[in-house]
Amino acid sequence: MSKTIDSTLQEDRTFNPAIEFTKNARINAEKLAELRQAAAQDHEGFWGNLAKSELSWHKPFSKLCDSSNAPHYTWFEDGEINVSYNCIDRHLETHGNKTAIIFEGEPGDVKKLTYQQLYTETCQFANALKAQGIQKGDRVVIYMPMIPEAVIAMQACARIGAIHSVVFGGFSAESLKDRIEDAGAKMLITADGGNRGGKIVELKKATDKALAEGCPSINSVIVYQRTAHPITMQPGRDIWWHDAIEGQATDCTPAWVSSEHPLFLLYTSGSTGKPKGVQHSSGGYLLNAAVTMQWVFDIHESDIFFCTADVGWITGHTYVTYGPLANAATIVMYEGGPVFPDAGRFWKLCQDHQITIFYTAPTAIRALMKTGDDFPNSYDLSSIRLLGTVGEPINPEAWMWYHRTIGKEKCPIVDTWWQTETGAHMLSPIPGAMATKPGSCTLALPGIDAEIVDTSGDPITAPNKGGSLVIKKPWPSMIRTIWGDDARYQKTYWGEFDNRYYVAGDNARRDKDGYFWIMGRTDDVLNVSGHRLGTMEIESALVANPKVAEAAVVGRPDELKGEAIFAYVVLKGQRPEGGIDETLTLELRNWVAEQIGPIAKPDDMRFADNLPKTRSGKIMRRLLRTIAKGEEITSDTSTLENESILDQLQGKA
Ligand code: WTA
Question: Do residues 168 and 597 lie in contact, with contact meaning Cβ atoms separated by under 8 Å?
């Protein structure tokens, strides 16, 4: 068996940054070479120097990286720091009147907060948390729309050393409950609702449902009034945000915590079992968040930075809440859907707020590309100087459209590869210093030691041979553990090659110039619209339905979403005629939406009498993937218990 993977995609176009861009860039080719050399000479010292120059410490650290307990690594452990102090307080003297947040609600309401206002609101809310009994180390779940108060809530937690766990507002009551229970959260911060796609997202209603079904650890719920539609408040448990902050002092001394103190948990999908609570640190996490803003986004004093991600994802943590604010930058936050009221909304936001850096996901680019050039062409996009993408490989066609129609061929595109677990960008162009290629995330950043290895863990040096993407040296913003399941942490990320490398779970190849090209996940994780979903989670949701006996879920390539969800379902009762039952399909899709959230709804569903299994009872997923793609079956199917189900699975019977 071959130890590497063959690649079929070849893309040879290269794009050099415009001279105009390079001239003003923070990092040019020369500076980049210096950074790379410094990192190569002294990996830990490189990060240590940056930690000293880029962050403000209450007590300086003397330790750099401690590997004595590998694969658990600590960074700057004896240093004391506060993340909220670094994001707000230290800017007040010079940037107190600078705009920190420009917020636009879906209905069009605009609100701006200066750094001074952000300070006041964060302190007041931090005091409100304390008044509700929240202490250092307590877990607080945040289930909010994309409004400034979501950032304020995160910053307030950081300020008092509480550990936040943001749950994406699109997740269902069921998912919310699971995450609250896994984290053992004491408090939930939510809103009555949020605006999305012209409708109200019923956050408080979902909260009530989650808490009615479990979550005994929750003592109180703070509710921000955003939509002002009728909701019920439970006396003794629920308190309005505006009541909670009433009379609270507008200063709050930051809690100085060890650099290793957990800043947050963020739940993400894995291939097996329930979502895992990825635990991040304070100092190390903030360092990579802060420096990648400078290296990758070339952040300047005058920039208006718009990252379209929700705070419920890691991108919204690192490039909405923490990285930009650590750099005293101005961010744009937008509450609603990308195509509301029409597909021109993002471009209108860019025009109206004079956005200079725009960062989004390939799935959004493809969806907007499909609606034609008239939308972007009817807005003034001349303020934009840099574009970025994240979440999945971007197909060269979408890259070229982004480059031409949005960037007007003058803006570099940074295709940033990273993960919830890595905390910040890992592989990415440095826009003023490197040529880019459509579809490649180019090279590892300085201080990041990435490699592609074969199934034995040996480096693959031949160009265009694919293998497993690994990181060879620890870096400050790396995942520390999985909350409550350290064994899973060790097994998932380090087990495959005997603790030698951090294993990303992605396949990749390098071209003749050493550029990285991500080829997809190695496990059963789907990447739907840039969001990771475990096939297991969707399967568990399906079999939780009383009508379903068994289910298998696979991905199939989808032009818009990256991957679409294909579910094979075995019912407890009779299989419907021809394997198709639209009413039941609709019912099960809605069921999954209720269990997990609308993003997890299967796109296709086929009913069969059985699933294809090996003799040992393992579902033959590869076969199901082939069928989902509509490809011909070439693999050996003779070991199947019941070969006739193949026709059913293929929709032929
Ligand atoms: C995928 C999102 C190709 C990859 C920050 C990774 C990408 C997973 C890229 C992490 C990219 C992310 N090119 N693939 N530029 N960025 N991915 O945790 O499979 O939601 O492992 O973090 O998304 O997804 P996560």
Answer: yes
Residue 607 in any domain: the answer is yes
Average pLDDT of span 69-90: 98
Stated pTM of the model: 0.92
What digits encode the pLDDT tens for the residues 238-280? 999 999 999 999 999 999 999 999 999 999 987 666 889 999 9
CB 527 within 8 A of CB 499: no
β-strands 99-104, 110-114 pairing: antiparallel
Q: Which ligand 1 atom is nearest residue 441's CA?
A: 15
Pocket of ligand 1 (CB under 6 A): 268, 313-315, 390-393, 415-420, 441, 504-506, 518, 521, 527, 532
Between CA 471 and CA 477, with CA 476 as vertex, the angle to 5 degrees is 85
pLDDT tops 60 at residue 626: yes
Q: How far apart are the CA of 112 and the centre of ligand 1, in A?
A: 31
Write down the pLDDT at residue 451: 97
Largest CA distance in the chain: 74
Distance 496 CA to ligand 1 centre (A): 20
**Spacing, Cα 419 to ligand 1 middle (Å):** 5
In a domain, 556, yes or no: yes
DSSP assignment, residue 635? S
CB neighbour list of residue 474: distance below 8 Å, 6 or more residues apart: 65, 67, 73, 75, 502
How many angstroms from the chain centroid is the CA of residue 631?
32
Spatial neighbors of 160 by CB under 8 A, at least 6 apart, are 126, 129, 130, 134, 135, 136, 252, 254, 255
Q: Pick the residue whose CA is nearest to atom 14 on ligand 1.
A: 392
What distance in angstroms lies between residue 5's CA and the mean position of ligand 1's atoms? Answer: 19
Q: Tell whether 575 is covered by a domain.
A: yes
Interval 527-535 mean pLDDT: 85
Asked if residue 446 belongs to a domain, the reply is no
Q: Going by CA atoms, what residue is nearest to atom 25 of ligand 1?
A: 419
Among 418, 422, 507, 523, name the best residue to mutate to test ligand 1's pocket (greatest count of ligand atoms within 8 A of Cβ). 418
Question: For atom 7 of ligand 1, which residue has the closest CA?
Answer: 392
Total number of domains in the chain = 1
CA 53, CA 287: separation in Å to the nearest integer? 10
- CATH, residue 597: 3.30.300.30
- The rounded Å distance from CA 271 to ligand 1 centre is 15
Centre of ligand 1 to C-alpha 392, Å, is: 5
For 372-392, the pLDDT digits (tens) are 999 999 999 999 999 999 998
What's the distance, Cα to Cα, between the start and end of the chain in Å?
35
Give the residue numbers spanning the domain of 557. Answer: 517-649
pLDDT interval class at 1 (50, 70, 90):
very low
In angstroms, what is the span from residue 391 Cα to ligand 1's centroid? 4
The proportion of the chain whose per-residue pLDDT surpasses 70, expressed as a percent, equals 97
Closest CA to 324 of 365, 356, 363: 356
Residue nearest to atom 23 of ligand 1 (CA): 391
560 contacts: CB under 8 Å, gap ≥ 6: 363, 366, 367, 370, 529
pLDDT tens digits for range 222-243: 999 999 999 999 999 999 999 9
